[in-house]
Amino acid sequence: MVIFLFIFPKDTDGFKNKKRRLSSDVTVPQCTPRSPSQGQSSTETRPGTSSDSSTGVIKKYDDIVKSPNDKREYRGLQLANRLKVLLISDTTTDKSAAALDVNIGFLSDPDELPGLAHLCEHMLSLAIVKYDKYPNGIEFRRFLSTHGGLYYAFTFMDHTSYYFSLLPQHLAKVLDIFARLLMSPQFTEMATGRELSSINSEHQNNASSDIWRLIQLNKSTADPKHPYHKFGAGNKETLEIIPKEKGINVHKEVLKFHQKWYSSNIMTLIVMGKESLDELEKMVLKLFSAVEDKSVTAPTWPDHPFPPHLRAKRTYYYPVKHLRFLSIDFPIPDMRKHYKSGPRYYLSQLLEHKGPGSLLSVLKARGWSNNLIPSRRIDARGFAFFTVQVDLTEAGVDHIDEIVELVFQYIAMLKKQGPQRRVWEEQRDLLALEFRFRDAPDALIAVEAHAHKLQDVPMQDILSASYLMTEWRPDLIENLLELLTPDNVRVEVGAKCFEKKCTQTEPWYGTKYLQEDIDKETLAKWKAVELNPELHLPLPNEFIPARLELEKSSDPTADAIAPVIIKVLLTDTVCVCQAYTAKVGGNNYQWVHIEQFAVDVGLVYKPGDTNFEQFLKDYDSQLQQRKRSIVFGDYNINLLENNKRLTEYKNQDIGC
């Protein structure tokens, strides 16, 4: 399968990844959120890099930064053939898993064979392996399916990923088969024909998907001289009909593609199992040291697919489904190397903020949008996009230029205010909290998440790169802000009402659209925006903890409030649990007893149901005399209308 990471309405993409276990020779980050006197979150590191060329290992990394709560063990390796390996040991896992990433994708397709990298991925996935253990051959995917396994493979713009999981006792055997598959796959002509049909079926399914149509529309309107313009998915026309007309043997070309690019020096491997790190290392060395290092260089594309003459454009899109959206794109350089400072994350979090003074709050007030969709178009080595995506209301479709003007007003405010260290530190601390307390992903997700990242990130940072920001770089934020201008913008808007306007047809999916220049008057208006008093930076977040340790007491019952029986029901007793008074941010916060109302509402549901929650918000002892009510939420009062006892509580002020 070929895949593009373009996020569309209802999908989200964050600045995230994974982690898990503590051992004496592994780096342990404390991930301590800032206190008022702190500048940055501290991370404890220990030297842990070694090498042993006699064993086939160039470098060994036992200093991988991980969460203090992570119970998994990690080790990084670079083999003599320059294959990068991350080992994950988890004795509690119910599945073992592995992922391999090759740093080549469909941007490297030959011009005359769009979709060749995708075909190579399909061929490798279903190839037969023959060797002494299996003289008659064995199919990798069939082995997985008969041993409790799952398998996925995707072709991206600049890399191709394979990942799978299965029952733990079969890990060594499946890695043996997979390693041999990489080195000597059996690409038969019969299999080539079969996989061409499979790719064409994928293409036909994609043709009715708005996500795929929009992705390809963006690519088809790019510079025809840039590889981004290619039809990376491929279909029967590009991989069979046209090649035959030109006398091209596709079977031979896919063999050549594999032979050229599938080299250990541009591969990464992640393996997770119940075995110890030493056992996993021995397994990987034995099986993958023989993968050939062909000393290839993964290509990069520093020129953007949307040069200046393709900017300041507006595209109307006629969707398949009833969608209404606005996408505001700015071409930018590749930002992945700046993961320690997160300039793009800083700006995207501000533009997608939903509180007072935010872009969304103003759009909602005017009835033009219900949501901003976190979104990033696909990046590749050398180029990227900064995107603001708006979920439009029906009224919002008629105010596209005003919405874009609001976006530029917000950007103007950010430029005038300048990069704010306070905002960046809050983002940093929240990410560090997430890194520390995030649940460990299952085996398949864990290996998939790190496989491609290991191509770009040092081994020590592989778990923390999307979480621990340690470098305050206002210059990078300013540089990025300078690119967010009307002259650089590309506006894309989709709605059913544009059917008659969309007179152009995209060649691969038949998408109806219209692309036009944004008129000079509109551009001039966007360039001359004034500051909007409705738009401002988020207020300081007072709820980020300065200390994460639990309060300890020599006598846990000393400050306890005795349980109070509030209702006796036949054989069941309902009571309020023990409550404690704790210091939080200098104020005294105390849970108060909620008696009859909570019981009555709770009894509407069977015992054990948890779909009724009570919220105590902004309760401050200093405001106690002025704040005389508690808001109850997350239940549907309409469900309670027929209960005579409960309706009396509706809109009632419950005293504290």
UniProtKB/TrEMBL annotation:
Query: Which Gene Ontology terms of cellular component type are present?
Result: cytosol; mitochondrion
List, for all copies, the residue spans of the domain called Peptidase M16 C-terminal. 252-429
Region labeled Disordered — which residues?
20-56
InterPro entries from the xrefs? Metalloenz_LuxS/M16 (IPR011249), Pept_M16_N (IPR011765), Peptidase_M16 (IPR050626), Peptidase_M16_C (IPR007863), Peptidase_M16_M (IPR032632)
> What's a Pfam family this protein contains?
Peptidase_M16_C
Instruction: Please list the residue ranges annotated as the Peptidase M16 middle/third domain.
Output: 435-567
Bias (Polar residues): 24-56
Does the entry feature the keyword RNA-binding, yes or no?
A: no
List the Gene Ontology MF annotations in alphabetical order.
Answer: metal ion binding; metalloendopeptidase activity
List residues of the Peptidase M16 N-terminal domain. 84-225
What Gene3D superfamilies does this protein's entry cite?
Metalloenzyme, LuxS/M16 peptidase-like
Keyword set, alphabetical order: Hydrolase, Metal-binding, Metalloprotease, Protease, Zinc
Q: Name one GO biological process term.
A: proteolysis involved in protein catabolic process
Q: Which family, according to the similarity comment?
A: Belongs to the peptidase M16 family.
What name appears for this protein in its UniProt entry? Insulin-degrading enzyme
